Fold this protein.
Amino acid sequence: MTRVVFLLVPQLHLLDLAGPAQVFSTAADHGLGHTLHYTAEQEDVPTAQGITLRADPVLPALTAGDLVVVPGWRSHTLRDNGALAAATLDWLRAHHADGGTVASVCAGADALGRAGLLDGRRCTTHHDVQDELARRYPRATVVRDVLYVVDGRVVTSAGIASGIDLALHLVAVRHGPAAAARVAREMVVYARRNGDEQQTSAMLRHRAHVSDAVHRAQDLIDSHYGSRLALTDLATVTGLSERTLTRRFTAATGLTPLRYQQELRIERAEHLIGHGTTVEAAARAVGFQDARMLRRLRARTVLSPGA
């Protein structure tokens, strides 16, 4: 039996808590022997989304087999929120010293940092606060733009939805990948993501613009990135000429429509390869006729990531 103890901090984000909690409770439903416990420094814990949660105000005694998870909280700067009493930080520190595992979601990494558990370790957090985390804990190595980082028995994640990825990873470590896959399927998770995958997908990275026509073109490419798409088809959808669409698309995203489609293909192929698919099979799955083009595009991406 493994106990998962969530340490709740005022103004915590519900999904930072609910995502991992759902993973471990679903694992328990599958007979994997998890129990969930919620503790805090106060009985009533307000959340960033306006719901107040009830937690055990007494920090429980822990064993080495227990997992402590600190969900993140709303904070524009880490130093302004998430304060924990010295006794709580001592509790976290002692659990790790006794052989236990500690994990954080989003700003929860700051709690581990305050407990001294990030010193000399690799870690990550949400991209909005990763620079501040690096400044606050200069002895830590903050890995930017990844979903989660495992360094011994300290596991940190980027936050929000990536807390699900972190929890699925921990289930896979303890019970095997097949068990984690069953949990993910039960939760209707689209795909289990590796920790080194980027925090934002290509579909999101190039959406920070206000061109409706370009968004419509991206919608079509996103849903058919593995198919041959003619520029005339995209132009028809947007109501623009091919030349005007190409000009607006490039201005809005920094990429031509073809390069954008290739980036989606590469990202999906990298995901498949990271989960054991061969380069040849991944190339075919994302729409390339053979692996040569995929290899060339992957090499170009590595040499020129901003291209």
User: Anything to note?
Assistant: The radius of gyration is 22 Å.
